[in-house]
Amino acid sequence: MILSTIDPSLDYAISQEMIGRIQAATVQKVFTDEALADAELEALLTEAAQLASRD
Q1: Among the residues of 1-55, which ranges form H helices?
Q2: N or C: which end of the chain has fewer CB within 10 A?
């Protein structure tokens, strides 16, 4: 799934429901394991928003 974001020619056989579960688990892992400072969290969310808005 991550590689298909980098290389749109790749295909993956994952349901939309499973994609949502993977994304939620990833976000939870980052937030609970990293103990990010406010500035680090802001930078992470800003980068995620920029990546999400790419064409």
Answers
A1: 2-6, 16-34, 38-52
A2: C
Neighbours of 55 (CB within 10 A): 3
CA-closest candidate to residue 30, choices 15, 18, 47: 47
One-letter amino acid at 19 equals I
d(CA 10, CA 5): 8
Per-residue pLDDT of the chain (55 residues; tens, 9 = 90+): 666 666 777 777 778 888 888 888 888 887 787 777 888 888 888 887 787 777 5
**Which amino acid belongs to residue 33?**
D
